[in-house]
Input
Amino acid sequence: MSDAAMLIGLSAQELAAAYRDRKLSPVEVTQAVIAQVERWEPHLQATWLFRPEAALEQARASEARWQRGDALGPLDGVPATIKENIATRGDPMPAGTAAVDLKPAPTDAPPAARLKEAGVVIVSKTTMPDYGMLSSGLSSFHTLARNPWDLRLTPGGSSAGAGAAAAAGYGPLHLGTDIGGSLRLPASWCGVFTLKPSLGRIPIDPPYMGRAAGPMTRTVGDAALLMQALSKPDARDSMSLPPQDIEWAGFDVSPDHLRGLRIGLLLDAGCGLAVEPGIQAAVEEAARLLEKAGAVIEPMQPFMSQAMLDGMDHFWRTRSLVDMKGLRADQRAKVLPYIRAWAESAAEFSGEQVFRSFSQFHTTRVTTVAACARYDYVISPVSPNMPAAAEAPSPTNDPLRPLEHIGFTVPFNMSEQPAASVNCGYSASGLPIGLQIAGQRFDDLGVLRVARAFELIWEPQRPWPVPPGR
Output
């Protein structure tokens, strides 16, 4: 393994230790990450506002802090990316669409502010689809993002660039958002780890029902390290949780931690696409491993319904239609045609239809909490399907059936429960498969602990995608 490849493979935890012991410098690590980005980007198109010189300037400042002995913490000098819909001061925020007028953000959103305060080296922003409403990297503004495991396929979305960047080694830390599966779907399809935290655990601006920011990393430990910074309070989020002193370092448990845990096994979402056999087999094998380690696995009946999924879909269509009516005609014409067709399908909805659709969010919340109440944790597939073609806006490619793949993920946005995706296997063609681990509301640390225990019992040494031409 070359020195550069070795640096790319180091976790944030390992980098912090190496910086502290002066065995590595943030500058040389950032240089290696920049070279990795330049090697992959002609193929992936995961970045936006990739600024090597700005990143190196941040790295030199971090190096000086470590040399003086006044580093800002364990994240100081660690390379990271930020999804482009998380505002960074002075940068436009297109939200993946060519329809918006680009204006510099006046301030950092809370997650970006926490990273900067921690001394993180921000290498780039990452791409997303129009308005974040696709599980795809297809965008009317950004170049089409692709999956590093197979460039013909989507990385997932809406945190498309973040998932691809994490898998391809654009630094150990990546920040995305999730309102129905936008962290977990790309994490599953790109073979990385993510935690969609309890709603409000990570303050975000603007807050919205079900919307969460979260870490995307190659290891559970790096996500826990990032949560230390991201979960700090910020008054701008009126939906944020009260500050809590969580011992995030306590994520690092042994497989013995699983002994006696009551874990529900959900293999049927109750709506949307049927689970592909290879995905079901991988999740069932994960359940056997957890059971062998001492967990009590109990099969669950589906609790979601197609009416719940369709109701949320119809309300989101209406919201997007209202947003598009606020655009000029020339702006509306630039919206991705699939998104435009999806939103315009709500034009004839009555007030009663919209009310009944909105009511499904609460129905989903109540149903999900009740279904999970008897379990410590619930495991399931992240997605019922493997990634679609990169050019496809959704697995069905049908704007009237756009959300058929989020039946396992979206209920935990609405119930506000933490849910992670951890790699649990590979398809016959070698593509990664994600296991979703959901916990009770507020038990973010517990989800990380179960994910860490599974990480230890499953496959410690996993392959990673190799840049084309190597």
The longest helix spans residues 351-372. DSSP finds 15 helices and eleven strands in the chain.
